[in-house]
Amino acid sequence: MTQDNPSHKKLLGVLIGGSGLIGGTLAHYFKTRTPDTIELRAPSSKKLSIRNSVDIKDYLKRVKPDFVINTAIANIGADSQLALEVNYIGALNLARAAAALKIPYIHISSAATLPNGENLTETDSLTIDPKLNNYAKSKLMAEETLRHMYNTVGLDYTCVRLAIVYGEHDHKTQGFHRLFFSIADESMPVMFTKKKIMHSYSNANKFPYFIHHILINRKEFSGQTYHFVDKHPVELADLILTIRSFLELKSPREIYVPYSMAKFGKKMLEFLLKGLSRIGINGGLPPELMFLESFYKTQTLSAQKLQDSSFVDPFPTETIYTKLPELVVYYLTRWTHENMISTFNEEVLGPDTMSHDFEQSPADLLESVHQDSTTPFTELRIP
């Protein structure tokens, strides 16, 4: 698969994990941007379970794709067996299939495989250790095995590490969106971080352009790992306060809770929830709290290798700060519709005349629709 395609063959790819934010963004991009040159199929888990090697072999043998993209992950709080089967064994079996078919394999990894620190490069990584959490351990093992397969059996792969991902259409409240939800719901009274803690962010909106580029430029990207992150890292405290200001809220207060106190509070909540479970009341802390230490330690990924590549950023001025207005409108609207949140100032979303009429003047709305909006779609008329 090269940029020069003399046969002009339409390429067929298989996407694993198409229901998540990254997978869904990729599926939408290839469906709308490349319908004549690249077709991307995203089988559901009923058709292809990444945990079942027979499913993988049967499906890929039948479909005969030109490439495979793996965005599937187990929940970050998953137990050891699920993390092993999805994040490691599943990724390994996809790679084995891709190697046998001699097709590119694009693997999406995570900054969880990296230590804390500044300007970390693609050659940096944690050391495999039993004490690592299940998510980091399984993702790190997958990276190591892909490198081994590249060197031993010639696997044509590219590993892309993402940092904190932001974007629209994430149907799970996790990661950055969990932080955003906590602020919008006014459930974060104070700052669970400290000043000058920096993190890297990955823009889901730009990501499909990069994947498209590396698919048609295999010579440059084969056997390589890339950090797909925004050029400039972001201070966590500043981002929290910016969101607070945007939502016109008073909390979280600019009071910084020491890590030792935050860690103690987490342990107390875990103890309380364990006690409640004994009387039939089940509950749990957000799985992101396993990364509580990250709120107090800097981790920034170098974007230099990405910038030095042939990839050109399609939206060079777009950052998490410039995307905030869209993210606010999208997620507050969605969370309101799902009755997950109701404490924010609704004026932030701007006026919605039709929704107001639906609530207050349904008869007038009905009349208006009958007058203006019931004609057939003329573009669908059969001549």
TrEMBL record:
Please state every residue range assigned to the domain named NAD-dependent epimerase/dehydratase: 15-174
Describe the family membership recorded for this protein in Swiss-Prot or TrEMBL: Belongs to the NAD(P)-dependent epimerase/dehydratase family.
Would you tell me the protein name for this molecule? dTDP-4-dehydrorhamnose reductase
